[in-house]
Every structure is written in C-alpha cells, then in structure tokens.
Here is the input.
Amino acid sequence: MINLAGKTVLLADDDPDYLFQIKFLLEKNGYHVITADSQREAEKILEKIKPDLAILDLMMENEDSGFILSYKIKKMYPDVPVIIATAVTAETGISFEAAGESDMRWIKADLFLPKGLRPDQFLREVASILKK
Amino acid sequence: MARLKILVVDDEPFIRSGIIRILQNFRVDYPFMDEPFEFDLLEASTGEEGIEVINNQLPDIVLLDNKLPGIQGVEVLSYIKSQKLDVVVVMITSYASLDLAVRATNDGAHDFIPKPFTPQELKSAIEAITKQVFLRRMTRELKVTGKQIRFQFLSVLSHELKAPLNAIEGYLRMMQEKQLGDKIDDYAQVIDRSLQRIKGMRSLILDLLDMTRIESGQKEKKIERLNLREIAQNALDTAKPMAIQRDISLHLLSPTEVWIDADATEMEIVFNNLISNAVKYNKDGGKVECKIISEDDVVKIEVRDTGIGMTQEEAARLFQEFVRIKNEKTKAITGTGLGLSIVKKIVTTYMGTISVESQPDEGSTFKISIPLKKLTH
Here is the structure.
C-alpha cells in the first residue's frame, strides 16, 4: 500500500465552488492541494512546482484550456498524471470536437472524469491514478 | 455493418501480419452508433507504396511506421496533410519518446502507438480512433443539415446548467455530512454561495426564455410608438443601485426625445443589457454614457463605458452565444453569456446593426443603429 498522504495535487478550475469543494475533500484525505483559478495561474504555478497529480477543468479562459495545460504538463513533467474533469458530457462528443478541431494536437490526458462524481468515487479514481 | 479501411505501412512483414491478425476480427461498438464497426485491412511495405494505396483505396485510418526504407513516415504524413485527405494517421514508432510523438502530432498525426505494443494496446488505440472518426463524420453530417449549431448550443447549455447544480449539490452534501461543524453558522458561506449559484441559474433561464421568444418568432411583436429616452432612463434607474455602490456615474445624453415604432419589452431588454454591462464591466469611479440620437432615417444608440475594455480578438467573439470573455479582470463578474447575443438578435429583427469599439483598460462603446421605418409586422 503506497502512502498517498502528502502528495501534492494541482487543481485548476475557474469555478470557485468546485475549487473549494474538491480542495476540501482532498485535504481532508491527506493530500496537499494547490489551486489555480485559471489556465494562466496554473501555468505560473507549474513553473515553480512539480505536482504529483494535476486535476484540470476543460473550459477556462479558452474552451480547451485543460488540453493546453495537459500538453504543457506532459512536456515539462512527463511522469505527472493528468486528470481532466469536465461537465461536458463525453457522450455528446461535439464540444470535444469543437475544442480539437482548431488544433489536432491530440492531448494525452490520463483520465477524463465527469464533474459531480460522488466523493468516494472521485477519491478512488485519484488514488488509483497515483498508484500507477 | 459499418466498415473502416485501415492501411498498415511498415517495412517489417511480421508487424504487418501481426496487426492484421489482431484487427481483422476486431469490432468496435459505441452506444451512439447504430451498428458496430469492423475493419478491412490493407498493407504497404514502403512509404511510396503507402501513398499509392492511399490514393487508390482512400483508407480511413493509416497506421504508419516512421522508419521506412525509402521516404520516411513523417513524409507520408505531410503528403496526407497537403492533400487534405480525410484520413486519421497513427504513428507506430519504436522511438517511443514523447518528443517524436509530439512532433508527429503537431504535424497532423492523430495519435501514436509505441512499439512494441500488446494486442490490447493496439485494440484500445483503434477503438478510440474509430469513435473519433465516427464523431467527426457525424459532426460534419450535422453541420450539413444545420443541426450542428443547435446540438452544440444544447451541449454548452447543459454544461452551463450542470455547473451550478454540481456546486449546490456539493454544498448540500457537506451540510448533510456536517463536514464544517455542527452549528448552522458554520455553513454561512456555503449557504451564501449556493444562493448565488441559484441566482445565476435563474438569470440563465430568464435569458433563455427571452432568446427562445425572439428566435421562435411565435410571439408577435407588439409594435407601438416608444420614447427611447424614457426606456433608457428606466434602464439607467435600474442600474443605479449597482452603480452607486461602485461610485460609477450614469449619464443620459439625448438632446431631444427620440421616437421609434418597436416592441417595448424588446427595447427594454436591449437597454437593460447594454447599461448593466457598462456598469458591471466598469472600474470603480468610472462613467457610463448612454447617447440616443435620431438622424436622417436612423436611430443611433451608443452606450459608452470607461471600464476594463477588451482586445479586438475578444470583441470579435462577443456576440456569440455563451461567450464570456474570461480573464483576470472578468473572473469575479457573473453573467450568463447570453445577454449580448440576445441584444444582437433583437436588433437584427429591426433590420439594425450592432458593433463594439473597445480599448483594453480604457473602455468599450456599443453602437446600435436601427432604420426608422414603419414595420409591417
């Protein structure tokens, strides 16, 4: 069993309530959380800190901010896993398509998670990606 | 049975036959698809041969080795790109470095599969690509039939409606589990935020109703003779409490009364949106000027603010649905992203035009002009 406590999570989202709730949940479970409320702020933090995991919103200043950040993280720190959390349902597909059409760079996030997961499901996903 | 053609370009025969063996009985199923996809496999041992097959057979997916005896994989890739072919390219490479993959994906490759790969890895990659191909074609089809815009609208709308629901649900859960303490006072901020999100959602629904009403054209315009100065004054009065809090002065510049034949509710929506925006996106101590003039056969309305302004690039996107300019300066300002697109829709129904001039940090001016003529509605 790997000890997950003390792992640093970068959480980027422009919804202040989502940031507050997820930060609270992760901290209660022993993680260290750094928050960014925009793609730009996340980029600034990444210059100074290498997190153990990044959880990114898809649409921030840009409709594909999450993809852009994911690309940058993988370039800077290839071993840092990336979760993209979004309320855009994957089933519609269209919004992802719209985000990707402008640039066909295919961004490799490790996991897509829908927002609004139950806390226990969310924590399980986070733990399992950190154990990989 | 839907079928996709996959071309394998690799100089090593056993890799080609391996891939073909793995994929020839593989099927991809997807809830959105009526029927599963199956694959027809084609092969080529050099890049040159690959290009020939691409031209003759038009494969849907190309699995492309980079290291080839003649021309390299990336050259095949740039050929496909230059011909603008509807082909998804996946690089197979033993140099599984992120660097090459990134370069190839920048050049238009859709994905890469590092060599050696397991059958399962290959299948997962093909499955993902098949879904992508399917969605892309469906999108194109929808675009052709004009359904795409509506679909995209609904998809963004569901996103905008789900975000506040998630936030409120999260807070209620925190309360249910007493995560912040036993006293109701411990939850003051949580309750306040929930109410804020509900308020935001309500404005969104109201804006949607406005928009639907305008778009459907089902409700007939109630055309009457309106004094625009009076409507502007009402809108300024509505915005006043918000303006006073931030020491923003409001001015109505209208030398004479300006009359127009129009629907009162619609003109109110136009003025309320522009003036409340001018306050919302202003700086503390700033100024809002609303100017209405009638010249020749045109009514001109200008709403000028001394606020945060925006770049040309941002201004170009401004009248689209759900577009909100997101940056450091706007992040604390709430809005539905529908106001200006509603204003534009209304103005258009009067054969009018709307435009914006803006300088970052100096302010914006919204200009509407509506031709003055009796509407036969």
Remarks:
- The two ends of chain B are 52 Å apart (CA to CA).
- The longest strand of chain B covers residues 287-295.
